[in-house]
Each structure stands twice: as structure tokens, then as C-alpha cells.
DNA sequence: CTGCATCCGCATGGATACTG
DNA sequence: CAGTATCCATGCGGATGCAG
């Protein structure tokens, strides 16, 4: 399982991965679905204040197409559609946790140069 | 170092982290800087075909402001400016690797339902 | 209830030309 | 060499209205 990537393919790989997560609301949706939660369209709508239906369905559809989210249609009136994560979608957890860890490291390391944005090499 | 996040703060944290990585060229630049490489403006320009000066300087400036990239100015004629990663920027490596790992898992798990995008719960 | 269509404003990104 | 300034195209996201 050793990763042997060239600088370019690695950049492409991460860019592709990031592209799947891009979108104003995908992360929020994802976190509402983590842990095996199964939510209806209206549940998500209510759980995410400020999101429009268009955005909600758009982001859900994209993630469904990308294999991150599973869509379950119950043919009944009134309609009922539920959303949950695929196995692959659940597998995102560790990666996002790593990102979280990195973000948390901001205060702590970085060489103590938060207030020295530009170094000046003038002699 | 246990992460104890609520659903909301975690989403915010990751979103903030992702926001720092957003931008058409940031990842590409990052990967060219990983490994302690110190590159001049023109080096990056040459190394990344298709990028415009505007985009290059814009993305670099944002990452500098965010503490990911360090900018070193040599006051001389002709001008010479070098860019490298901060310690925190270098620390991004594991997180991006996790993302890479996740992306690689696409083929392999996900319950074998790549061809069944929408499940149908009709009785 | 769930989801699609349309229109609109704004931010992002790209091309080009110019400056210290 | 290392930017800055300007103009322009595109796309994203928001609001509203309609349909199955």
C-alpha cells in the first residue's frame, strides 16, 4: 500500500479528490450524513439553514454521481427520498480528520512566523 | 490529542481548511513546493504551463496570507523573489496523502454499487 | 414532498498590456 | 524579473415559480 506518486499525478489525484468535495454545501451535507445517518430531503433542508432546494439537490446529485452518496427512492405519495453515505463516502472520515488535525496545528507550529508574512532577504 | 468535535464545528473546521486549498492552482503550486523546494516566481510560472501571472501571484499571495507559503524577497536588480512552504504548509502532506488514499479506494470498496447509482425501494 | 426550470447577480478565473 | 491593471467570459449560487 505504499503510495508512489510523481509530483504531477499526486497533484492531479488530490485535485480530483478535492473537486468532489468542492461546492458550498457538500461538506455540511456530508457531516450530517456521517455515522450512517439516513436523512430525507426535507430533513437535510431543515438541518441546513440557508441552503436552497436547488443547491441541496444539486450537491446531492453530484455526490451521488460521484459515488459518495446513495439515494433511496420510496415510490409512494407523498414522495419520500432518503439519502445516506456509500461505503466509500464513509471512508472519507479519516481524510477529513487529517485535514482537521492539520488545521488545528496552525496554532502551535509553523515556525512562529504568523506575524512575519513576508521575509526580507535584504542584506 | 483526541478530536472531540460536534457535527457543526467539524464541518466548519474542514470547510475552513478546504477553503485554504480552494483555487484552481493552489494544489499544483503546493505540490511543486513540497519537499522543501524553494522556487522563484518565474520557476513556478515555467513549471506550471497554462497559469497566468495574475493567477500565480494571486494564489501565492492568498497562501502566504494564510501562512502556508513563505515569500522571500531579495532586493536586487533584476528583482528576485523566492517561495517555499512554511512548517505548517509542509504539515499538509499527511492530510493530502489521506485524501489520495481515499481517492484510491474508489476502486475496491463502495459496496460494489458503482452501476446502481439510485436504489429503488419500490415494493 | 421532492425536484426541476428559469432568470439574475456576483465572484472567480483568464488574456492582454503596462510598470518598477 | 516580478508584479499590477484592465477587461471579459464563465460558472456558481440564490430566489422564485412550477410539476409529478
UniProtKB/TrEMBL annotation, chains A, B:
Cross-referenced InterPro entries: HTH_HxlR, WH-like_DNA-bd_sf, WH_DNA-bd_sf
A Pfam entry, by short name: HxlR
Top-level taxon in the UniProt lineage: Bacteria
Keywords of the record: DNA-binding, Transcription, Transcription regulation
Gene3D superfamilies: Winged helix-like DNA-binding domain superfamily/Winged helix DNA-binding domain
GO molecular function, one term: DNA binding
Domain HTH hxlR-type intervals: 11-111
Residue runs in coiled coils: none
UniProt keyword Membrane, yes or no: no
Presence of keyword DNA-binding: yes
PANTHER family to which the protein is assigned, alphabetical: TRANSCRIPTIONAL REGULATOR, TRANSCRIPTIONAL REGULATOR, MARR FAMILY
Name listed for the protein in its UniProt record: Helix-turn-helix transcriptional regulator
Native source species: Ancylobacter pratisalsi
Amino acid at each position: 500500500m505504499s503510495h508512489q506518486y510523481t509530483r504531477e499525478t499526486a497533484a492531479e489525484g488530490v485535485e480530483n479528490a478535492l473537486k468532489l468535495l468542492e461546492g458550498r454545501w457538500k461538506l455540511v451535507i456530508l457531516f450530517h450524513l456521517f455515522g450512517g445517518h439516513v436523512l430525507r430531503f426535507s430533513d437535510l433542508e431543515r438541518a441546513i439553514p440557508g441552503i436552497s432546494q436547488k443547491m441541496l439537490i444539486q450537491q446531492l446529485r453530484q455526490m451521488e454521481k460521484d459515488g459518495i452518496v446513495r439515494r433511496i427512492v420510496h415510490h409512494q405519495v407523498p414522495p419520500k427520498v432518503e439519502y445516506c453515505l456509500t461505503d466509500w463516502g464513509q471512508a472519507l472520515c479519516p481524510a477529513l480528520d487529517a485535514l482537521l488535525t492539520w488545521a488545528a496545528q496552525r496554532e502551535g507550529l509553523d515556525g512562529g512566523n504568523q506575524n512575519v508574512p513576508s521575509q526580507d532577504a535584504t542584506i
